[in-house]
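Run log, item B.
One chain of 306 residues. Sequence copied directly from the ordering sheet:
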Amino acid sequence: MLDAKAAIQLHKSFVAGWHFYQLWMQAVETSVRYLDPSTGSALRLRDTSAGMNLWKCPMNRFDLKDLGLTVAEVHRNLPPSVLYEHAIRYERDSTIAENGALVAYSGEKTGRSPKDKRIVQNAASEKDVWWGAINLPIAPDTFAIVRERALDYLNIYERLYCFDGFAGSDPEYRIKIRVICSRPYHALFMHNMLIRPTPDELASFGKPDFVIYNAGAFPANRLTAGVGSKTSISLSLEDRELVILGTEYAGEMKKGVFTVVNYFAPKRGILPMHCSATADKESGRSSLLFGLSGTGTESEIAEIVF
């Protein structure tokens, strides 16, 4: 007969196993393929459980060749269930936690690398950037070299992941963000961070306003002028591109989006604020909670009672 401790552990194992089974079955459902009788192209079936219609277009119709990426297998806006499947299948250390979260590792870097952040010094924007110990300048030629290094690395992969989403909820002011990466974990992270487009919005997404190239598993060349280490987070405000090398910490993508939003918003008559917000359902009154990253501004929302 099991004692109480063993019984609790057995129950936890059962719950975790059942949750994994549900995730796996959802992944299987969204991964079913059939052939288009007119073209012979592989199509994905509609995910009836999630009400998604993102799988009706042939997978080979979307590519990133206009950005210099020639990888044929590009997975665009995969649902979490399939990203879980890819992470477990293709990444050795990825697992699923007891609570159902995907466990992935960012390697040596477990936080941001602010000293490795660079911004292209350009006449069009240099007077609007607060240059200093954090915002260090690099030449346009250096950015081109860093970008080419990232593209060369991403092009060796059998498959890439692309997530198209929005920074900002107002259709008039939101920014279209495109994230290109080699790891399902990074695609899942940005799936959570950005506002996800509807199927119609994704179909008409068009050219993005900002592109992130995440080649973080490949180091930067520390001998490149203006780089100085094996980690490089390089931003071009004119090209509207962010290139990540030498760090797999996903927060670099989020902070890159923040930087771009905070730079362009005032130019459009919008005041950006680093805060969280909540509202009373009955009166509509809002509360803004200001604080630096990691100080609990989001957590505090759960404690507010109107």
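Observations after the first pass:
- The helical segments are 4-31, 80-90, 140-154, 184-193, 199-203, 251-264, 297-301.
- The two ends are 50 Å apart (CA to CA).
Flagged for discussion on Thursday.
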